[in-house]
Structures are given as C-alpha cells and as structure tokens.
Amino acid sequence: QVQLVESGGGLVQAGGSLGLSCAVSARTFSSLAMGWFRQAPGKEREFVAALSWSGGSTVYADSVKGRFTISRDNAKNTMYLQMNSLKPEDTAVYYCAAKYGSWWQRTGYAYWGQGTQVTVSS
C-alpha cells in the first residue's frame, strides 16, 4: 500500500516562493514514478510536473516551466516542489501522486495525497 501526505501549502504574494513536500509511505519508494498535479476552483485537475525514479529526469507543464522545480530524496521517501515567481493563476489545491510505471507519461497515477492549498494573492 502506498500513502502520500502533502505539506507546505499556504498564502503568498505574487512573485513570492513556496515549497511543497510529499512524504510517501511505500515499501519501494525508489520504484515509484512521482508527480505533482493541481486543481483550481471550477477547473479540472491538471498536470504540473513529474520526475523519474532516480530524480535525474524531469518534465514540466509549460505554464510552470522555469519557475517550478520538482525533486525527490529517495533516502527520505520524500518528493518536493519548489515554486518561485508565483502568480495568482497558480492558486489551486496541489496534489502529489505516485504510480508504478512510466514516469514520462502524465496519466495512470494510482495513488494520491489529500492535497494542500496554495493561494497566491495579487
């Protein structure tokens, strides 16, 4: 069984920074493909970023490329999302997700956290 718990959300002004963490309970964290998604009010959940099992390869949504950085620490069973130059349109509930499978594919995630709210004020 895989369990995920996000932390680090909050309120920040536009242009500011915020870091999210995702603590994972799993027998083989290093075998899990990991990703971040977000859902804004009235919108569908969208892909934000994902990274490979080792963390050496990453992929980002165009809307966050150059501003967000995804990473993982396999020794700590934790994934991170560093968000810089935040914009009001980044306001959403952010979810971490995991799956056993192709890390480069943006679908197929089987395990989800409960979500953490990020609010960016203008």
What does this protein look like?
The structure is a single chain. By secondary structure, this protein is an all-beta fold. It has no helices and 11 strands. The strands form 2 sheets. Strands 2, 4, 5, 6, 9, 10 and 11 form a 7-stranded mixed β-sheet that branches. The model has no long low-confidence stretch (mean pLDDT 96).
| Helix run count | 0
Please state the overall shape, judged from the principal axes of the Cα atoms: globular
Q: Give the termini distance in whole angstroms.
A: 40 Å
- Please indicate the percent range of residues in DSSP E strands (runs of 2 or more): over 45%
Strand tally is 11
Order of helices and strands: EEEEEEEEEEE
The description of the largest β-sheet is:
7 strands, mixed
Class from helix and strand fractions: mainly beta
Using only C-alpha atoms, the radius of gyration works out to 13 Å
